[in-house]
Target: Malic enzyme NAD-binding domain-containing protein
Amino acid sequence: EILPEEVKAVRDDAIMATGRTDYPNQVNNVLCFPYIFRGALDSGATTINVEMEIAAVHAIADLAKAEQSEVVAAAYVGATLSFGAEYLIPKPFDPRLMMRIAPAVARAAMDSGVATRPIQDWDAYREKLQSFVYASGNTMKPIFTAAKPALEK
Model:
C-alpha cells in the first residue's frame, strides 16, 4: 500500500483512499456490510444481488455529499467533513448509514424480485431503524467520549 504523502509528493491533485484509520477516506467494509444485511434480512431477500449492491453504493455516495450531522461532526472534531478530496466517503460511525443504506437495499430487493417479505409501511420501517441507531448510539457514547481527547491531539 502506498502512503498518501508519497502520492501527494508525485501528484498534488491526486484523490485517494486507504484502508488505514489514520488517513482521510478510510475504505472499510463496515460502511456497507451491516446495512446491506439489515436491508436484505428485513425484506427477506433470497440473495444479495447486483441491484442491491448498486443501491448501497448510491446511498453511500449520496450520504458523502450530504451536509454533516452534528453527531458526526462531534465525533470527528477537526476533521474535514465536506465532500472533496479529503472526504470521499462517510465516516464508519456515521449513524445515518443505516438509515440510508438499509432502506435502499430493501427497496432494491423488492424491485428486483428477490424479497419474500416486502416492506409495506416505509415510515414504520424507518422508525424501527432509527430505534436501532439510537440504541447503538447509547452503547457507543462512552467509547466516543473516551476517544475524543485522542482525536483532538
The mean pLDDT is 87.
